[in-house]
Amino acid sequence: MALLRPATGRAGAVGIHRQTDRKRANLSHASQPQNPGCRLNEAELESWARQFQQAGHAVVADSGDADVIVLNSCAVTEDAVRKSRQTLRRLHRENPEAKLVVSGCYATLHPEQAGQALGVDLLVPNADKDRLVELTQRQLNQDSAPAFATEPGESVLFRLGRQRAFVKVQDGCRYRCTFCIVTVARGEEKSRSVAEVVEEINALHRQGIPEAVLTGVHLGGYGGDLGLGLDELIRAVLAQTDIPRLRLGSLEPWDLPEGFFDLFDAPRLMPHLHLPLQSGSDAVLRRMARRCKTDEFAALVEQARARVPDINISTDIIVGFPGETEEEWAETLAFVRRIGFGHIHIFSYSPRQGTKAAALPDHVATR
């Protein structure tokens, strides 16, 4: 059985504790709060937890009981990198006897730094995440007990008091917003098949989970490598599963095809869209290499509310992007008031080495 334990600071960690004839896995996660990457980290951790369960391991609530701890690290901001390093040190300090596995964006972007951290026994880059459980068992000698692998397991999420599952449907991003390091860490886009997603959601529903959230680095780009669109995946999930509630993760505003809002005629699709704006100033949006101007964004929100009157629109805003003036910030404030978002995730700009924004002039001083 395996444990998923969210941590403040949000990178991700898995641990396995060996009992006499059964092993336990402890999974926790730490990634930047209110960031799409967080949802993806959670989806990956939940998937690993289920795979550890199926292999005969046990989910435990305390990393101190684990034989193996797996950290799914984050690098979306410098603060997330700092917290990932702190989490590595803390996990080793709390359980120095456990094997420590590190994956995620921090480990992928800074493998030497992460690999030299105290207690790290195995580093799994993002490209090999789908094989993390296999690699952990094989390379760290954590093979499972087959007898337990055949038992039907309770949902890992119920052990956490949760009834919502994050389902990763794609990875990677084709766009290069100038502030974003995640697209570098995650690589090219790769989508899961419709059948695979449907099968996972049906399995979650059989375990009693009533809500699934579709998530990805570039969720709106789902199926670009398969000749499909996200709307086709949504229709398939609604038609081929009975899960009571389906929710969508963050979607870029330019990714919604014509007729997209018709999908919300299905009462099982929750009326919520998270559309990252990032700035309400067109000049700042150009420096960010965003593909949606403010008037286009406003028109999209108007269309959504006309078609789905009870829809909740939330967004992200970056404060202090390089070169941002008081006038540009005032434009953002005015635009935010005009739209009337249901919820806003606000971030201070964090320069990330390897992004174009880091080399832009006139960085805004923090106070």
Overall residue-averaged pLDDT value: 85
SSE order, one letter for each helix or strand: EEEHEEHEHHEHHHEHEHEHEEHHEHE
Helix/strand/pairing class, anyone? alpha/beta
The coarse silhouette is globular
Report strand %: 15-25%
The low-confidence runs, each spanning 5 or more residues with pLDDT under 50, are: 1-23, 28-37, 145-153
Helix content: 25-40%
Question: Nearest-angstrom radius of gyration?
Answer: 21 Å
Number of strands: 14
Distance between the termini: 46 Å
The biggest beta sheet is recorded as:
7 strands, mixed
What count of helical segments does DSSP give?
13
Please outline what is shown here.
The protein has 367 residues and is of the alpha/beta class. It has 13 helices and 14 strands. A hairpin with a 4-residue loop joins strand 2 (10-18) and strand 3 (23-30).
Give structural notes.
The radius of gyration is 21 Å and the shape is globular. The longest helix is centred in the first third of the chain and has 19 residues. Strands 1, 2, 3, 4, 5, 6 and 7 form a 7-stranded mixed β-sheet that branches. A 4-stranded mixed β-sheet has the order 9-8-10-11. Strands 12-13-14 form a 3-stranded parallel β-sheet, with no helix packed on it. Helix 9 packs parallel to helix 10. Strand 10, helix 10 and strand 11 form a beta-alpha-beta unit. It has 13 helices and 14 strands. Helices cover 34% and strands 22% of the residues. The protein is of the alpha/beta class. The N terminus is likely disordered.
